[in-house]
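testing teh design pipeline on a random one, pls ignore if ur not involved
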């Protein structure tokens, strides 16, 4: 909880220096009991200094009304769905990019004929409104449910969606994942010479990827992350045996590969993430490695589901299926998920 004006000042100043990360702000101003939790000076600081930096604000109904009141606006009573939507739109005008008003304080009657109450959470931003309805529950322990919802907004993939939707990321990401090599591999028209070259470079790349994960184990702060990085290295060792078996189908021996020179692209990327690993912390190294893991996963999924992809008679389709297999899909999920959030929150 941002319990004082001085804490808000420090947080706002820090966030202004980190303008490229999404900010989820749960204001925690009014308790379920109705008690106001923040002093007036803190609420003013939150309005003036934090809301303009916020990607998504997640107030409950009393907090949303208090924000409007403290900003000089007169909030109207909320008695139904339309009022809830109006409330979200009014709060969004205070500065955040999106507002998700949590409707747990106001159970509503469902649209069907049954006497069932529902809860509606209203998301508003960039001119669009989304309403999320669910059955109303009345448990005895609701402490922390709002904070949990704010956490989920960050940790369930929304950060990556936000990142890949940025104007300064869309173009480079499209060039990286949808270039001509990928298209021809899906169609089965890629020249064998080009694929052989790729297989050689991919093997040489995996050697450095293993080194980076060994370095990540050294940089890690917890035994779990040390173990995970070590297991990645072990898994790569097994994967490279399969890689070599696949290479033999294209007339490539282990000696052919290991005697081949690295391409400039392979050298540039691998030395980049190894340099990051040497000079920065565990998180920076994971982020430097992420484009490879995430990109391969997205390329595999897209080619697998693309109706233009040739499956029968495509000598490259077996390779594509490696990147939609359960083990690789799980690696992408784990590698792009909650571990990074835990690190940022100081839980590791």
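output:
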């Amino acid at each position: 909880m941002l319990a004082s004006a001085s804490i808000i000042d420090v947080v706002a100043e820090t966030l202004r220096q980190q303008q490229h990360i999404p900010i989820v702000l749960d204001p925690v101003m009014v308790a379920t009991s109705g008690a106001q939790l923040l002093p007036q000076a803190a609420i003013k600081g939150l309005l003036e200094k934090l809301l303009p930096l916020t990607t998504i604000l997640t107030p409950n109904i009393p907090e949303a009304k208090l924000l409007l009141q403290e900003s000089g606006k007169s909030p109207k009573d909320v008695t139904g769905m339309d009022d809830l939507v109006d409330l979200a739109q009014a709060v969004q005008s205070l500065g955040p990019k999106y507002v998700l008003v949590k409707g747990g304080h106001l159970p509503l009657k469902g649209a069907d004929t049954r006497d069932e109450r529902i809860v509606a959470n209203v998301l508003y931003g960039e001119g669009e409104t989304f309403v999320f309805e669910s059955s109303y529950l009345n448990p005895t322990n609701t402490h922390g449910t709002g904070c949990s919802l704010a956490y989920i907004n960050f940790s369930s993939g929304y950060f990556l969606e936000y990142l890949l939707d940025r104007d300064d990321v869309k173009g480079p990401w499209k060039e990286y994942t949808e270039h001509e090599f990928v298209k021809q591999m899906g169609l089965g028209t890629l020249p064998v010479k080009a694929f052989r070259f790729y297989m050689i470079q991919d093997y040489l790349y995996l050697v450095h990827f293993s080194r980076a994960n060994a370095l990540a184990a050294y940089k890690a702060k917890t035994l779990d992350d040390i173990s995970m990085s070590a297991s990645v290295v072990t898994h790569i060792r097994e994967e490279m045996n399969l890689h070599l078996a696949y290479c033999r189908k294209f007339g490539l021996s282990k000696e052919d590969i290991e005697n081949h020179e690295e391409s400039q692209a392979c050298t540039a990327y691998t030395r980049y993430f190894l340099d990051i690993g040497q000079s920065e912390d565990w998180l920076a190294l994971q982020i430097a490695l992420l484009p490879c893991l995430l990109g391969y996963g997205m390329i595999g999924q897209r080619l697998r589901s693309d109706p233009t992809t040739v499956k029968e008679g495509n000598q490259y389709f077996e390779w594509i299926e490696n990147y939609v297999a359960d083990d690789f899909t799980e690696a992408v999920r784990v590698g792009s998920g909650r571990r990074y959030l835990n690190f940022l929150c100081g839980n590791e």
